[in-house]
Amino acid sequence: MLSDGSLKMKDLTGLKKEIINIILRNWIALQNFKIPTYKGLNEIYKNIIKSEKDASPKIGFKEYEIRKYKKKIYLIKPISPSIKNMIISWHTPSIPLVLPNQLGVITKNNIGIKIPSPGKKELINIRFQVNGYFYIQGYPHKKKIKKIWQNLNIPIWNRNNIPLLFYNNRFISALGVFIIVEKNFIVKNYWHLSWHNNIIKNN
Length: 203
Prior knowledge:
Strand order of the largest sheet: 5-9-12-13-14
Order of helices and strands: EHHEEEEEEEEEEHEEEE
Mean pLDDT: 90
């Protein structure tokens, strides 16, 4: 088991089904979840282990999901309730903002990521979903948000758990992951923000 709790597909390649089932049982037990029945283990083997190379399948159990993403297998506990359409206003940046669903805390400080600061009349808000094409720091071409997540190796199930910083309706940053670059926009002031979390390693 890797540090992020996942298993590498290549470590299972060539092993007998019975051995893989033992590895899966131990892997799930180590993460303190109920081990599936023999039928459930067979479903994981058939639909996850033996899935197409570039596929991203998932199997849902009562308390968790088993997913494959980019040559690794993950055990995921779904976060609820959904915050996909939530908008949180941050009226007082001097006070840390506690996010829902135990997603961490955002703080203004002197050590976090350096991003453009809001204007006097801009409302600071946090969202968890965005659509469209964007330029981000470090990449020369404009890309669809789905492609950005993929290029940065952010698993599908984490994308709606990452706080997205907006000023009014202007997308500024996926905190801890990337910063938007606006062509022909002159940034006059900056500030530093940190997102303390258990999902993405802090900057």
